[in-house]
Please model this.
Amino acid sequence: MSRPPRKKAERKSPAERASEIADAARSIALEQGLAAVTLRSVATRIDVAPALVAHYEPNMEALVAATFAGVVSAEIDEVVSLLAEHPTPRERLAVLLTTLLDGTRDDVTVVWVEAWALGRRNDALAASVRQQMDSWQAVVQGVIESGVAAGEFETDDAASVAWQLLGMIDGLNAQALVLWGEAASRGSLIGHAVEGMLGMPRGALLVAASPAG
Amino acid sequence: MSRPPRKKAERKSPAERASEIADAARSIALEQGLAAVTLRSVATRIDVAPALVAHYEPNMEALVAATFAGVVSAEIDEVVSLLAEHPTPRERLAVLLTTLLDGTRDDVTVVWVEAWALGRRNDALAASVRQQMDSWQAVVQGVIESGVAAGEFETDDAASVAWQLLGMIDGLNAQALVLWGEAASRGSLIGHAVEGMLGMPRGALLVAASPAG
DNA sequence: ATCACTATTGATCAGATGATCAACAACTGC
DNA sequence: GCAGTTGTTGATCATCTGATCAATAGTGAT
Model:
């Protein structure tokens, strides 16, 4: 009862239509997960025939993979610029943990979780996943290395610590996504865990993390 | 070229057939993931008509949920009995981390990851996931509490530490599943993380963890 | 041996999915 | 204006999914 049968879509330039498709795919992914990004769901959202979406994309695997990459790289950029606002490595690490674990980005977490699962049957997506994980790792490793250089952290393998940290964050977010209220608040204890990994005194990391936290 | 067209399935007792179906679903889940557990894949594996599987199960959601629960509860039982072989809480915790992070159970990790994703569209599965997470948490919490009582660990919230620990383990396993060789070895650093969470001296946890490790 | 019971099946449905292609129609350049 | 280019579409396919149901054929009880 809500579909005024679409007449004909406005004719647009390929570039414009392509980005419209990408945007639609992106918002569907964030709202309903990657699995909901289908030929027809994308077409419906921008009020266009399914065949048009197929015309613009080589195949759906590619669109899903590209959508995943877009969502995650946007998240990375956002966090990176947030980190840039803070002077010391300790602060940056604290902000990193806080912002990634406060539940603000649960929609992105859903995308991650579905990407891990779908990636087992979508090679292009699997490649995107590995690539974005590498990007994340590079960001975290950078923070850690600067902290080591500044004498705030202590480790001889910043790369591994970065991987470990990412794994922990992802796991806690996935867990929170499923339990949703049942589990303990994430983030309070991970501080001590990270202190342990980086040879910091107990409580040194999250002291005065956010001004009004 | 490999299907001698099935003639007729042997007639079996309901109990026997039901467990045969459960077993088939279980092995499919471990070999190919939960998403591969379909009416037809299960029927094919036990060489039976799809309708028979439907006859034994109220619906596929239920079978998938039950299969997940079966896989995970078996894993829990296995780990619990492994823990029972070790006397001190510190050893038990070390064994717990080691056995869950050595890659031995990657097939179960796949099931977990797909359960998180599929659970968003399968309520019965979502309920099973929450239930099994609770079971896991209880096991870990028990280890931690015994360690606190023995004066080996230090925390005033064993429940939260258990949740945190599980989240970390799940995340690291999921990560290892995707990267598979690219990432650092899991488990070496988590020891220090856990030491941080439980107020232990650096290196105290994984010393002499496994006899020949 | 015959009968009632029931495990099992083939056929079939409805609903998704991705994908292709000839045809239409709106621009653009001449 | 007219023609060529091309964005767009409807129709249609092939596959996969879960699910239902009347009909068949073993099985155990009498």
Remarks:
- Chain B has two domains: 10-57, 61-197.
